[in-house]
Specification:
Strand content: 15-25%
Largest sheet: 6 strands, mixed
Number of domains: 1
Distance between the termini: 43 Å
CATH architecture: 3-Layer(aba) Sandwich
Order of helices and strands: HEEEHEHEHEHHHHEHEH
Amino acid sequence: MDPIRRKILATGAAATAIAAVGNAFGQGAGGEEATPMKFYEKGPVRIHYEEWGSGFPLLLLPGGGLSSTINSLRGPFPVVNELKGEYRCISSDLRNAGPGHSVGPLEVDRPWDSYTDDHIGLMDHLGIDKFAVMGFCIGGPMLWNVLKRAPDRVVAAVPCQPSGYRPELPTFNYDQNMEAWGPDLVKRRPEITMDMVQKFLFNMYGNKPDFVYTVTRDFVRNCQIPLLIMPDDVPPHPFAVAMECAMLAPKSEMSMYPWAVKDRLPIAMRQLHNFLKLHTARA
């Protein structure tokens, strides 16, 4: 076995053992009793995923930056509980997220595409062709990359509180990950160095940073996939970028802002359900 693959799988095995103890007493992201952990493997990559409910497939990309996991789906509303009654919800821990159980190489030269490999590969593994996708926080740029890579498979997309480039804080996402995610990853994975992390994050956030990181304005302008954009406005989630996407995309609509507050959340959930029902029924 390749030495790097052996190290990666050993890390994954240890994570699985730890999770098995927790799962015996814990609950899944949907609030139900946790089930045995599921994994999808391709070469040196091992991705932990879960499924809830039934119906049209809905890929959920959790927030939480490069530490995003299935457990992040608890906010800004109880995502799985809200959607599993109508959809086959599918989500996974991000590759190499510290709190999660997904492991794989750090692909320095193709950071965004390596994550998209995992997302599309998981849908292939499950035998799913057409699906909808909803991305939170970092799941926003990842969602756009899925649309770029698999435009004929996605029937509807919901960027929810999406990340993007903020000119007044140009290195925010890079700095946050260099301070927390990077050092933690190096501690867990001795074959990965901080120099590799720096190059990975530069290619992700610092190499001609702009807009949504993963696609151009021309791509959004020509995107024919229906979009519901649910904006936010905190340092990593610029409202201006969400608004620009809504203005550019020809088949987009936008929720009110702010929407993730108690008195407005029912309206936002009604819009989300109506949007998904309309476009998944057409598929």
